[in-house]
TrEMBL record:
GO terms of molecular function: oxidoreductase activity
InterPro entries membership: MPAB, MPAB/Lcp_cat_dom
Domain ER-bound oxygenase mpaB/mpaB'/Rubber oxygenase catalytic: start-end pairs: 64-222
Protein name, per record: ER-bound oxygenase mpaB/mpaB'/Rubber oxygenase catalytic domain-containing protein
Taxonomic source organism: Crocosphaera subtropica (strain ATCC 51142 / BH68) (Cyanothece sp. (strain ATCC 51142))
Amino acid sequence: MFGLNLRYHRLQQIQQLDPVNDHCQICHLLVGYEFPWDITRSLELAMVKTYCIPSISQLLDRTGEFHHHTQKRYDDTGLLVAEILKWSYDSERGQESLRRMNAIHGHYPISNEDFLYVLSTFIYEPIRWNERFGWRLFCETEKLAIFHFWQKVGEKMHIKNIPSTYEKFAQYNHDYEQQNFVYSDSNRRVGESTINLFLSWFPYFSRQMIKPCVYAMFDDLTLTAFGSPHPPGVVCNLVENGLKLRGYVSRWLLPRKKPDFFTDSKLRSYPNGYKLSDIGPTKMLKKLNRNN
């Protein structure tokens, strides 16, 4: 029981903090210490779900980045998000990351509504994942802190009309998916490139066996928008129960002493480390760095 008490020590610390004023500190603890693996996986799902919007997938399909530089595009997205979460958006490093993100996005005609939806996935996909698979549930303070963190990031990205409350933004997220998740060939192409990226992380001989397990992570609305096969129920149950078991076992582990942000990982695109000036579409790097 002593180990279990230690496991919940950070939760007790977080519950003493304010979700509005201390949201950067709370998110730092959640992403770096309490749920690093879970939040990374949930943000992968968030990323994939944005490709169910034809206006988003068509843009990505045209640039070719997700077909020819899939791993770099994945790593770059993870790095920019992790930089902001690790150092906070008000730190020098966080501000530099936000400038980089805004400069990249500024080259593309992205609607404010699509920006809003993508932003909402960074709030609600980790919360949904936690409700299904977390070794403990987020407390109300943590959920509100995640909302306030990304609300502030959205403002610094110049996104307009961000809903003012957790509940209103959750409703926007739900309604946007119901109205805009429709099949298109660009959804399928970008989705297949992303699925192939995930499979490339496993030994070649195992990829066909793992592929249905990857599809089992997505809901029916997402699979339909991708034109992807719906995996057998037995596979869905296996994946669901396996992740729930992982969460149960994790509950009995000692708390993490060292942070485990995405930026701390050895990345396939940057085996020797990276600089923020390395981040961005390959064809755009010279222009991005010239403007800095």
